[in-house]
C-alpha cells in the first residue's frame, strides 16, 4: 500500500502529485518527506489547523511578476506599474520591499533588452506568453487514477511562429555557476508542456490548450534581478535532446521526490503538512517564554533576533529574502570567521581530533584540509586561530567522545508562540554520555570575563543552547554549553551547565526579551544609526542613512560603546553592554549566511 495514502498524519487524496521543477535541486540536507508531502496537493494534516497568513506582503517577488505582466502585456510604464501593484495589493508592503520591487523590475527589463538584442542578431523575436506550461499525465486503474504534474515558476516567451520557446528563471541576486537538475526539468516543461488555461496550482487536472506549431528550439535563461548583470543561458537545445536528457538524467529524480525518505528538521518545518505528526521535530511548549501566538506561524533564529535588535526593518527585509550587499565581508573579520568555521566543520566531520599535521606551513604550498575551502591568503590568516584550537579540540577528550555532529541544523517548534526555532550549533557531541553543545568564536581580543547573563548578552547562541538542552530537545534535560574563544595566540573554553538554575534564568531572560518585540511587530520600522553604513539591506531602506564616519576605520559609537566597524571588536565600554551594542558588534564579526536566493517553489 502507498505509505502516503495511508499516512497516519494526513487525510485526503494522495493520487494527485504536482512537482515544481525547483524541488529537484534539493539535497540530502533537506527533508525528503517535506517535498513528497508538498507534492501531494490533495493531502492535508489530519488535525485541522486554521492557517494564519502574514499581515504584510511576504513574497515581494510576486509583486515583481505582476508589475512585469502590466508592462509586457498591457504596455504600462514600469514605474507606474509598480506603483499600481503596490497600491492594490491586499496586504501592506514594507517601504523597503517596495524599493526593491521597483529596482528588480528595472533590472529584469534591462536583461530582457539584452536577450532581445542577442536574439535579433539571429533573426529571432520573442514575445511574452500569458499562459504557463504544464506537463501532466494520468495512469492507473478504473478504481484509482494517479495524476502527475510537472510545473515551473517564472516567465514564458515564444516566437510568433512557435518554433522557439523560452523560459526565464528569476534569481534574486546572482546567477549560478553550476548546472542544476531543475534546469533540464524546466526545459522539458517548455518542450513537452501544454499551455495551462486553468489554475496551475488549484486545478487537478489543469485545463490546457495545444500550440498550433511544434517548437524546434528550447531555451532556459536565468535572469538575476540585479542591475548590469547579464542573463545566463542555461539550456539552448532541440526538443528531442531536451526530452532525452530529461528521461535519462532527471526523471528518476522527479520520481524520487514523490517517494520521500529521511526526515531532516529545519526551516521547511514551518510550512510542512507533517509538522504536527512528525516524530523528528521536537515540540516544546514554552521554549521562548511567550504567552501569545503572535501574528502567524514564523521562523526565528538568533540571526533574526540579532538583526531585529539592531533595526527591525533590517530583520524584516532579510526575512523577505531580499538580496544583501556583499561588501560587508570584504576585509572584515566576518570572512575570517567563515573560513575558520568551514575548516573546523570539515576537520571535525572526520570524527578524529585535529592535529598539527592538519595545518602545514603556508609557505610550503601545502594547505592540508584547507585546500578547496579557502584561498592561500585566507589560510594564512586563519591558521594561527586554528593552531590555537588544537589545544582545546573537542574531539581530543578528556572523556569518551561519541555522537559527533559538526554544524548540524536543529529545529524545534514552540506551539505556545507558534514559532519554529532554528539553530546551527558549531558542534554537538557526547562526552562520557553527557551532551555537550559547543559554539566557537574567533577574535583578536579575548572576551571579557562575566556572568552567564553578560556572556549571553554578547553571544545569544549560548542562551538558546541552554534552553534547548534544558527543555530536553536532545534527550535528557541536562548537558553542557561550551564557548570556545580562539585568538591568534591562544584558545580557551568556558562552560555552563544547562541545568544550573542561574544559567537557565539568564538564558530565559535573554531569549524571551530578544524574541518578544519581534513576535508582535507588524510595522518593522527602520531605526537609523551608525550601523547603517554596514547594514546588508541598507540599499533597500527608504530611511536616510546616518552619515558615515570620516575614516573607514573610525570607531562607531552605539549606546556609549565604541566598536571597530571592520571587525566588530568592542574597543571601549562604559561598563554596561546594551542589547543593541552587543547586536551591532555581533552582526559585524559573526558569519551571517545569505538568505536563500531561489524562489520557494
From TrEMBL:
GO BP: DNA repair
Signal peptide: none
Skewed-composition ranges (Acidic residues): 591-601
Molecular function via GO: helicase activity
UniProt cross-references to InterPro entries, sorted A to Z: PDDEXK_AddAB-type
Domain called PD-(D/E)XK endonuclease-like: residue spans: 299-542
Domain of life, per lineage: Bacteria
Pfam families given in the database record: PDDEXK_1
Region (Disordered): 350-372, 581-601
Coiled-coil stretches noted in the UniProt entry, renumbered to this chain: none
Entry keywords, A to Z: ATP-binding, DNA damage, DNA repair, Helicase, Hydrolase, Nucleotide-binding
Protein name (Swiss-Prot/TrEMBL): PD-(D/E)XK endonuclease-like domain-containing protein
Phylogenetic lineage: Bacteria, Bacillati, Actinomycetota, Actinomycetes, Streptosporangiales
Amino acid at each position: 500500500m502507498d505509505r502516503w495514502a495511508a499516512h497516519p498524519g494526513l487525510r485526503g487524496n494522495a493520487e494527485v502529485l504536482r512537482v515544481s521543477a525547483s524541488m529537484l535541486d534539493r539535497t540530502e540536507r533537506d527533508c525528503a518527506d517535506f517535498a513528497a508531502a508538498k507534492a501531494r496537493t490533495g493531502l492535508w494534516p489530519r488535525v485541522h489547523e486554521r492557517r494564519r497568513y502574514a499581515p504584510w506582503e511576504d513574497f515581494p517577488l510576486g509583486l515583481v511578476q505582476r508589475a512585469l505582466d502590466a508592462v509586457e502585456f498591457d504596455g504600462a510604464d514600469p514605474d507606474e506599474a509598480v506603483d499600481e501593484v503596490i497600491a492594490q495589493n491586499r496586504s501592506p508592503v514594507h517601504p523597503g520591499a517596495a524599493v526593491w520591487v521597483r529596482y528588480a523590475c528595472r533590472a529584469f527589463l534591462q536583461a530582457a533588452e539584452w536577450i532581445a538584442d542577442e536574439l535579433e542578431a539571429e533573426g529571432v523575436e520573442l514575445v511574452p506568453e500569458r499562459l504557463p506550461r504544464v506537463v501532466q499525465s494520468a495512469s492507473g486503474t478504473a478504481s484509482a487514477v494517479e495524476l502527475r504534474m510537472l510545473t515551473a515558476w517564472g516567465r514564458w516567451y515564444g516566437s510568433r511562429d512557435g518554433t522557439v520557446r523560452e523560459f526565464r528563471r528569476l534569481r534574486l541576486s546572482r546567477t549560478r555557476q553550476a548546472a542544476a537538475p531543475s534546469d533540464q526539468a524546466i526545459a522539458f516543461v517548455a518542450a513537452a508542456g501544454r499551455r495551462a488555461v486553468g489554475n496551475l496550482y488549484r486545478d487537478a487536472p489543469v485545463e490546457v490548450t495545444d500550440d498550433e506549431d511544434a517548437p524546434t528550439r528550447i531555451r532556459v535563461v536565468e535572469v538575476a534581478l540585479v542591475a548590469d548583470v547579464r542573463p545566463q543561458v542555461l539550456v539552448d537545445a532541440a526538443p528531442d535532446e531536451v526530452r532525452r536528457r530529461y528521461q535519462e538524467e532527471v526523471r528518476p529524480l522527479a520520481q524520487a521526490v514523490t517517494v520521500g525518505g529521511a526526515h531532516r528538521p529545519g526551516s521547511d518545518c514551518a510550512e510542512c503538512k507533517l509538522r504536527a505528526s512528525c516524530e523528528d521535530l521536537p515540540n516544546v511548549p514554552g521554549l521562548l517564554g511567550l504567552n501569545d501566538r503572535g501574528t502567524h506561524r514564523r521562523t526565528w533564529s538568533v540571526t533574526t533576533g540579532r538583526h531585529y535588535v539592531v533595526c527591525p526593518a533590517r530583520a524584516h527585509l532579510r526575512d523577505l529574502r531580499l538580496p544583501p550587499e556583499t561588501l560587508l565581508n570584504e576585509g572584515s573579520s566576518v570572512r575570517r570567521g567563515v573560513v575558520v568555521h568551514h575548516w573546523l566543520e570539515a576537520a571535525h566531520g572526520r570524527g578524529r581530533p585535529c592535529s598539527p599535521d592538519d595545518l602545514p606551513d603556508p609557505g610550503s604550498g601545502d594547505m592540508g584540509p584547507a585546500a578547496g575551502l579557502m584561498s592561500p591568503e585566507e589560510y594564512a590568516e586563519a591558521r594561527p586561530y586554528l593552531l590555537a584550537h588544537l589545544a582545546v579540540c573537542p574531539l581530543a577528550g578528556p572523556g569518551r567522545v561519541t555522537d559527533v555532529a559538526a554544524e548540524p541544523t536543529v529545529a524545534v517548534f514552540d506551539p505556545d508562540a507558534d514559532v519554529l526555532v532554528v539553530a546551527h550549533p558549531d558542534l554537538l557531541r557526547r562526552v562520557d554520555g553527557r551532551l555537550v553543545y559547543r559554539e566557537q568564536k574567533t577574535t583578536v581580543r579575548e572576551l571579557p570575563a562575566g556572568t552567564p547573563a553578560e556572556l549571553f548578552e554578547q553571544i545569544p547562541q549560548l542562551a538558546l543552547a541552554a534552553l534547548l538542552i534544558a527543555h530536553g530537545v536532545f534527550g535528557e534535560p541536562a548537558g553542557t554549553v561550551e564557548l570556545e574563544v580562539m585568538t591568534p595566540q591562544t584558545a580557551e573554553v568556558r562552560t555552563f551547565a544547562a541545568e544550573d538554575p542561574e544559567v537557565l534564568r539568564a538564558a530565559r531572560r535573554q531569549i524571551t526579551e530578544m524574541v518578544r518585540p519581534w513576535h508582535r511587530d507588524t510595522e518593522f520600522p527602520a531605526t537609523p544609526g551608525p550601523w547603517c553604513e554596514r547594514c546588508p539591506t541598507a540599499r533597500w531602506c527608504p530611511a536616510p542613512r546616518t552619515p558615515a564616519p570620516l575614516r573607514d576605520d573610525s570607531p562607531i559609537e552605539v549606546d556609549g560603546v565604541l566598536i571597530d566597524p571592520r571587525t566588530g571588536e568592542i574597543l571601549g565600554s562604559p561598563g554596561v553592554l546594551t542589547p543593541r551594542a552587543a547586536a551591532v558588534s555581533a552582526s559585524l564579526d559573526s558569519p551571517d549566511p545569505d538568505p536563500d536566493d531561489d524562489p520557494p517553489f
